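Work Package 3 (structural annotation) set out to generate three-dimensional models for the target panel prioritized at the project kickoff. During this period the team completed the workflow that converts sequence records into discrete structure tokens, so that structures can be stored uniformly alongside our sequence database. As a representative example, we reproduce one entry of 233 residues exactly as it appears in the project archive.
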Amino acid sequence: MHVTLKLLRYNPEADRAPHWESYRLEADPMDRVLDLLHKVKWETDGTLAFRRSCGHAICGSCAMMINGVNRLACKTLVKDLNTDTITIEPIRGLPVEKDLIVDMEPFFKAYKAVKPYFINNDPPPARERLQSPEEREIFDEGTKCILCAACTTSCPVFWVNGTYIGPSAIVNAHRFIFDSRDQGNAERFEALSGGGGVWRCRTAYNCTEACPREIPVTHLIEEVKRAIMFNHV
């Protein structure tokens, strides 16, 4: 089959504004969108810029808007798009550096703000800090996040509010808020309770639909809200 790859291109050194460029390619239905981007870059236009690394939906590098939906290019098959015209844009809400590459620094700044690491000031035990399988299961979904930013950049509040911490940061806070061994909730609640915190969420479910790891993002956000409201987990 043949497909038309329609890419939103932007080179800040040469372009005044983003513009569309189209490429006609031969493709197999089982090709990934990432394969088509490689074909353009390696065989047609070496100036095309995009991020990718593992190619197996683990690193999260190749998040982009494909036919209007946030997806991973390495996970999206041509046959699943049910069209011979594929539009690709950078994920929204973050500054575009070139073509499909965005500045991820605002995203990671929000991630760092929730202290996404284990905090426990008790003297370390002789061996590991134990918890039951049931306690571990409570925060299991949040451990699946690969920091691709697909959920955060699908959120309308994130697009229009420059201070909203975003779904991904809240999910990563959830992972530690509900860890029975952790003692850092006071610090995380402070970061999540401000004007740009969890209360900005309007429960639109865009984030859940966009997640390539099928994390129930909206549900986890609601659990964090309740934890803050009642100041316990």
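The chain is about 30% helix and 15% strand.
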